[in-house]
Each structure stands twice: as structure tokens, then as C-alpha cells.
């Protein structure tokens, strides 16, 4: 049957009335030629800005050589990227996939199989946190501590329980003889840009050691320099068992990763898990170029510096408006909490040439690329202020 433009897509996204066709650095342009300052970065994906040169060149080179090969063969780029990630983290090995949800699925499976097949117990429950977000597959939406993503998808996967964030006693109350692991975001980006307290995270790590639980850190949105460190767990002085990545790892090319300790190797032995496209030559070429750029250009320290600048600028200039209740965050992952729903505010900001997005109902999320300049931050805050003064 004939359908109208757009009607052949399932309406799973509430789209803004904008069609973006071109991007470079911090800027994007729509089909009418209008310019926008992009401070959402494809939801923390374009950490290097749009069309970064080194990543573009590396993908173009790979396009001339080999696009896809089964994981039944050795893939040099895959091996190189895994080694780079291990050498720049406290992890030992990597499983590649295509997205954050897949990375968290792999973490859940690895934790359960480690407990059941390596340690020989029947542990399978994963403790996650209220307001968390871990993906939209059946298992990861069940792991997510927000009811809104679960509506209509009953029955949910068994084996998940939810603790209050930043409340160690609440976590202790959730531990049972069936608990296998704890999965936590160190910044709850989707849940409202809430940052984990240092003492809470240290006690959480100690609790995992005490009860032989795996500590799993969801770095899908916080990883790859976003918080001012390559990985957010580095701010806390902890040594997690599993770290999951995606978003910023490929600069827009789909790639995800689950990184783990050597002790988990037996749990993920041959035939236990797989991903057809995971770690393919094109994706890992993009990942190598992305990680090389972050390290060579010192983008972690730049994110820390620009994040401090942006946070102070917002505290100084935006808290004066009645609509603004708080500003918080770390590095270039910041949230502006408002006293009313932010959807209409975001629509106005887009009309004024600034792209940001919501984190929950009342929070505006500010996640620009790691190359953002002070001048671009000033421009963003000026637009925010001009809109806030009407509320």
C-alpha cells in the first residue's frame, strides 16, 4: 500500500520539527540552511564533534579494504581496540557489540554465568537503582529503575531489584543469597543528571568485595572522556569488575563494548555469547581513531576544564531566573533543573538555535562535544538566559 512520507516508520520517537543535514564540530545545519549550536551531541555520541577528521579518514580507509567479516576469524582492528581499552583502564578484556543496551545485556549475562558456572552457585539477581537507565531490551528495561520505559512490556525479566541511589543502607537491605552483582551509573544522565557521592561509591565497592558480588559500572553515557576522565569510575578510586561502553566510543558509528576482569574469561568462553556485527572492521576502525584522538588531544582534561567553566557560568547567570532550581553535573555532562516541565523550553531553545535535550521531566541536559570552546559555551548560556527570562 502507498503511505505518506514518514508513515512507513513506527512512531517510536517524538521528533523535533527539524531536519538536520550537515554538521561540523559544534555546529549543525538543517534543510533550510539554519545553523544550530549542538549541545546534545547525538545524546553524548559525538564526543569529538561532528565529522571528526581522523575518524572520517580511518573509516574511509577501511571502506576500501573490508567492511564485514565474521567473528569466527581474527579481526586486527578488534584486537587493537580491545588492547587500547584494556591498557587505558583497569580492565583486562573486551567483548564488542553494537550499542549500550547490548553492552549491558552482555554484562548481565556475564555476571550470572560467572556466579553460576565459574563459582558454582545459584546467584542471578542484579541490584540496580531507582531513576537508573540501562537500555530498552527486555532485560535492560527491567534493569532500568524507571517505570515509564516498562509500560506495556509485561512480563519483565526476573532477577532485578532496585535500591535508592546514594543510600548504602538501602543497598544492604536488597542483598540476598541470590544477589550476583550491582549495576550502577556514576551519573544518572537519563534520570536527571544525578551524580553518585564519593563515599557511597567507595562503600558500594567494599560491599561487593564483602559479599563476593560483581561491581558493574554503566559508562555508556559517561565514558570516553565525558566527565573529565576517560571513564567516570576513575573519579572514585575504585576497581570495578565490569564496565560497559557505547555512545562516544565510535563518534557516531555504532559500537558498544563490555570490558571485564580476567577472572570473567571462563564465564564468557567460546559459544556463550555472540554479536554478528560486534567488533566488525568498520566499527573498530572508528573506535581506534576516536580513542586515539581523545588521548592524543588531551580531551579528558579539556572536558574537565570546559565543564568547570560551563558549570560556573550557569551557576552565575542562570540561577537568577525563577524557572531554574539547580545546576549540577560533572565535566561536560550537566543538568539544569527547572521548576516546571522542560519540553516547551527545549522547543524554544531549538527555535533560537541551541540543541539540548531533557533528562527526565524537569531537567535540561547539556552534553556538548569535548572540543567546545568558551565562546560556544558563552553563546549557549546566552541563549538559555534569553529563553529563561520569559518563564
Per DSSP, what share of the residues sits in E-state strands of 2 or more residues?
A: 15-25%
What string, H for helix and E for strand, traces the elements in order? EEEHHHEHEHEHEEEHEEEHHEEHEEEH
Describe the largest sheet. 7 strands, mixed
Q: Could you give the count of β-strands?
A: 17
Please work out how many helical segments DSSP would assign: 11
By CATH, the architecture of the largest domain is named 3-Layer(aba) Sandwich
Distance between the termini: 46 Å
CATH evolutionary superfamily of the largest domain: Type I PLP-dependent aspartate aminotransferase-like (Major domain)
> In the residues, how many domains can be counted?
2
Kindly identify the CATH topology of the largest domain. Answer: Aspartate Aminotransferase, domain 2
- Rg estimate, integer Å: 21 Å
Structural class: alpha/beta
Widest β-sheet, arrangement of strands: 4-12-11-10-7-5-6
Binned, the helix content reads 25-40%
Tertiary shape:
globular
Q: What's the average pLDDT?
A: 97
The low-confidence runs, each spanning 5 or more residues with pLDDT under 50, are: none
CATH class bucket of the largest domain: Alpha Beta
Oligomeric grouping of the chains:
single chain
Amino acid at each position: 500500500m502507498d503511505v505518506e512520507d514518514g508513515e512507513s516508520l513506527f512512531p517510536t520517537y517524538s521528533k523535533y520539527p527539524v531536519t538536520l543535514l550537515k554538521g561540523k564540530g559544534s555546529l549543525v545545519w538543517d534543510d533550510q540552511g539554519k545553523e544550530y549550536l549542538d549541545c546534545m551531541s547525538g545524546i553524548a555520541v559525538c564526543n569529538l564533534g561532528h565529522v571528526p577528521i581522523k575518524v572520517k579518514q580511518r573509516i574511509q580507509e577501511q571502506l576500501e579494504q573490508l567492511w564485514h567479516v565474521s567473528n569466527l576469524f581474527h579481526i586486527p582492528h578488534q584486537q587493537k581496540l580491545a588492547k587500547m581499552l584494556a591498557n587505558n583502564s583497569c580492565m583486562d578484556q573486551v567483548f564488542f557489540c553494537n550499542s549500550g543496551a547490548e553492552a549491558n545485556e552482555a554484562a548481565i549475562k556475564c555476571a550470572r554465568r560467572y556466579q553460576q558456572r565459574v563459582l558454582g552457585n545459584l546467584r542471578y539477581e542484579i541490584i540496580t537503582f531507582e531513576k537508573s537507565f540501562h537500555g530498552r531490551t527486555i532485560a535492560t528495561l527491567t534493569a532500568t529503575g524507571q517505570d515509564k520505559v516498562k509500560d506495556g512490556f509485561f512480563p519483565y525479566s526476573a532477577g532485578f531489584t532496585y535500591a535508592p541511589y546514594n543510600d548504602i543502607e538501602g543497598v544492604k537491605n536488597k542483598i540476598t543469597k541470590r544477589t550476583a552483582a550491582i549495576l550502577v551509573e556514576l551519573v544518572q544522565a537519563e534520570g536527571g543528571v544525578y551524580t553518585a557521592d564519593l563515599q557511597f561509591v567507595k562503600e558500594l565497592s567494599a560491599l561487593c568485595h564483602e559479599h563476593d558480588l560483581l561491581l558493574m559500572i554503566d559508562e555508556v553515557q559517561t565514558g570516553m572522556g565525558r566527565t573529565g576522565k576517560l571513564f567516570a569510575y576513575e573519579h572514585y578510586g575504585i576497581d570495578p569488575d565490569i564496565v560497559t561502553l557505547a555512545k562516544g566510543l565510535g563518534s557516531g558509528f555504532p559500537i558498544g563494548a563490555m570490558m571485564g576482569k580476567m577472572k570473567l574469561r571462563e564465564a564468557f568462553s567460546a559459544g556463550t555469547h555472540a554479536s554478528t556485527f560486534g567488533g566488525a572492521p568498520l566499527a573498530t576502525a572508528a573506535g581506534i581513531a576516536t580513542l586515539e584522538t581523545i588521548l592524543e588531544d588531551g580531551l579528558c582534561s579539556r572536558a574537565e576544564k570546559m565543564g568547570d567553566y560551563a558549570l560556573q557560568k550557569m551557576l552565575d547567570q542562570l540561577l537568577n531566573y525563577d524557572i531554574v532550581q539547580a545546576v549540577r553535573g560533572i565535566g561536560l555532562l550537566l543538568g539544569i533543573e527547572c521548576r516546571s516541565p522542560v519540553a516547551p523550553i527545549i522547543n524554544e531553545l531549538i527555535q533560537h538555535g541551541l540543541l539540548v535535550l531533557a533528562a527526565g521531566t524537569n531537567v535540561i541536559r547539556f552534553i556538548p562535544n569535548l572540543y567546545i570552546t568558551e565562546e560556544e559555551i558563552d553563546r549557549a548560556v546566552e541563549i538559555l538566559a534569553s529563553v529563561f527570562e520569559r518563564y
